[in-house]
Specification:
The complex is a heterodimer of chains A (118) and B (107).
Chain A: E1 3-7, E2 11-12, E3 18-25, E4 34-40, E5 47-52, E6 58-60, E7 68-73, E8 78-83, E9 92-99, E10 105-108, E11 112-116
Parallel strand pairs in A: 2-11
Antiparallel strand pairs in A: 1-3, 3-8, 4-5, 4-9, 5-6, 7-8, 9-10, 9-11
Chain B: E1 4-7, E2 10-13, E3 19-25, E4 33-38, E5 45-49, E6 53-54, E7 62-67, E8 70-75, E9 85-90, E10 97-98, E11 102-106
Classes of the chains: A mainly beta (118), B mainly beta (107).
């Protein structure tokens, strides 16, 4: 079955760039789904960051749009997140997830904690 | 953005109890509503989509209802593994937004 796995640095300096990758295994990233990033600050709720289709089309949350880039690499069957100019407020568990046909998130990665600190 | 408001924020219940959690949207979202369960240190898991459709593999004690702006998640008979935090999420318009969560605790 399809699985998602996030990877990337767990510690980022303030004003730096957060970079994460989500590997899709057990299926193709070109199968018709949108692929998303969601984050969750410690002890808080869930926030959608943005989504990407295998064509490269993206939608970003307006609250983060000026700092976010999501890319897809079909050859590696993965997609990635870049968030620049990070602050402590960007400290969170970052999840990649698959958006299903009913505009919900039907498959999630395990998540990776990213801490913004010097 | 569409605001999603859950109530209560926390609830204490016992094994075997029937529990209902509500979610209200700030505008009409038709039936584009999903429910998730999240346990500590784990990713959320989809329970219900399209307001009332049960995700494959989810026990039938979970059910959802509602349309427009008001929705409910009901657990008919609580099991020990159901104690977790529950989130609603609207898929009507981007950016998709989540409720603040309802923590279901053991009484």
């Amino acid at each position: 079955q399809v699985q998602l796995q996030e990877s990337g640095p767990g510690l980022v300096n303030p004003s730096g760039t957060l970079s994460l990758t989500c590997a899709v295994s057990g299926g193709s990233i070109t199968n018709g789904n949108w692929w998303t990033w969601v984050r969750q600050p410690p002890g808080k709720g869930l926030e959608l960051i943005g989504e990407i289709y295998h064509s490269g089309s993206t939608n970003y949350n307006p609250s983060l749009k000026s700092r976010v880039t999501i890319l897809v690499d079909k050859s590696k069957n993965h997609f990635s997140l870049r968030l620049n100019s990070v602050t402590a407020a960007d400290t969170a568990v970052y999840y990649c997830a698959r958006k299903g046909s009913s505009w919900c998130f039907d498959l999630w990665g395990r998540g990776t904690l990213v801490t913004v600190s010097s | 953005d569409i605001q999603m408001t859950q109530s209560p924020s926390s609830v204490s219940a016992s094994v075997g109890d029937r529990v209902t959690i509500t979610c209200r949207a700030s505008q009409d979202i038709s039936r584009w509503l999903a429910w998730y369960q999240q346990k500590p240190g784990k990713a959320p898991e989809l329970l219900i989509y399209a307001a009332s459709s049960l995700q494959s593999g989810v026990p039938s004690r979970f059910s959802g209802s509602g349309s427009g702006t008001d929705f409910t998640l009901t657990i008919s008979s609580l099991q020990p593994e159901d104690f977790a935090t529950y989130y609603c999420q609207q898929g009507n318009s981007f950016p998709y937004t989540f409720g603040q969560g309802t923590k279901l605790e053991i009484k």
